[in-house]
Amino acid sequence: MDRLLYMPWMRQTIIYLFALLLTILCAAPLFWMALTSIKPDKEILASPPTFWTGEASLDAYVRLFSTTNFLDYLQNSVTVAAAATILCIFVATLAGYSITRFQFWGRETFAATTLFTYMMAPIMIVVPFFILMRGLGLNNSHFGLILGYSAFALPFSLWLLRSFFQSSRFCFLIVFFTEIF
């Protein structure tokens, strides 16, 4: 068996088979969810469950769009997620570059504190964060959600961008843009 693994084509075949198996395992729940969405109600709750339906129906989608405010909810989610992502990337880029490239007092302490907050479980600060948001009057607002999501994602983003700015690839980008402009 060991000799077979040293053959390049055998190793590559095993890797591709493992990747195919992993893809099937990851895609199976999504496929099952899509199939369940077109089944009639009686077939969804049938025991034993059926894999393929004989009578596909789009009634669930009709009910989704006609009886709920799904498009409003989707628009809210996309707006909040996009704004939180843009804010987080903007702040993390400025802070990560500053921590990496500038010399100032407390730089390493700030970096260590960022890593420490990244290691903390977010559930530990949910209640204080709620009290803060209520005190600022940001409950039930998009701006409060954007600030909350950004605050929870910022330590990871900052640490990731700090590592990028410390890498040699970033130095090559600086040299490249310096030569062009």
Q: pLDDT under 50 segments (min length 5)?
A: none
Shape: extended
Please outline the major beta sheet: none
Name the CATH superfamily assignment of the largest domain.
MetI-like
Write the H/E string, N to C: HHHHHHHHH
- Note the total helix count: 9
Task: Examine the coordinates and then state which fold CATH places here, giving the name of the CATH topology of the largest domain.
Answer: MetI-like fold
| C-alpha Rg (nearest Å) | 25 Å
Q: What is the highest CATH level, the class of the largest domain?
A: Mainly Alpha
- The share of residues in extended strands comes to under 5%
Overall number of domains: 2
Measured between the Cα atoms of the first and last residue, the distance is: 57 Å
Q: What is the share of helical residues? A: over 70%
| Second CATH tier, the architecture of the largest domain | Orthogonal Bundle
Mean pLDDT: 86
Number of strand segments: 0
Label the structural class.
mainly alpha
Notes on the structure:
By secondary structure, the chain is mainly alpha-helical. It is extended and about 70 Å long. 8% of the residues are buried.
Describe the structure concisely for a colleague:
By secondary structure, this protein is an all-alpha fold. It contains nine helices and no strands. It folds into two domains: 2-67; 70-180, Orthogonal Bundle (MetI-like fold).
